[in-house]
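Researcher: Next sequence.
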Amino acid sequence: MRCCHFSLRGLFGVVSFLAVTCGLLVYANPFLATLTFTAVLIALLAAIPGAIYSGGVPRAFWLGFVLFGFTYLWVVCGTWQTPDGADGLRNGLATTAVLQWCYVRAPATQTVMVPSPPVMGTGTGMGMSSGMMAPGGSGPMSPNAITMQVATAVPPNWNFFMITGQSLFAIAFAFLGGVISRGWYRRSNQSASGDA
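Model: Next structure:
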């Protein structure tokens, strides 16, 4: 039952990938989304020479890697999916549903500044100005009222979360494609040697 065996190196790679994935998703921002997408694209492009110039099992792996990875990116990145450019196919993928589920449960890690309600300043004997109203229209506001900015934690931006998540799914599907392709290559060689 060889299919149930796995190496310690493979297990370490999966755990490391999941840890990096969680970190990138929780702290998704414009820089990390761009960096993730670019790194995935470079990895897929770098695999093309491996699919062309290597032979045997490595060629089978890299060919599956390239085919699965680029096919997934083609499905999730194009506006060709519907005539009006809507996200028809992307929204129907299970991976999008997984990302939506994760986003709802993502911790608030981004800090934004929001205005707080005005705070009354110290009196200077000037009294209340009739031109300024307090919040809610309850009466005039002091000219010494201070509006402050307060830092609050919010979840990551959905667009950057989605770009990062779909990029990581693309590389995961690329590896899955490489493993499947390598398995089929080995199986076809075993059946060919068995027939001979």
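Model: Helices lie at 8-26, 30-53, 56-77, 88-92, 94-104, 158-195. Residues 123-134 have pLDDT under 50 and may be disordered.
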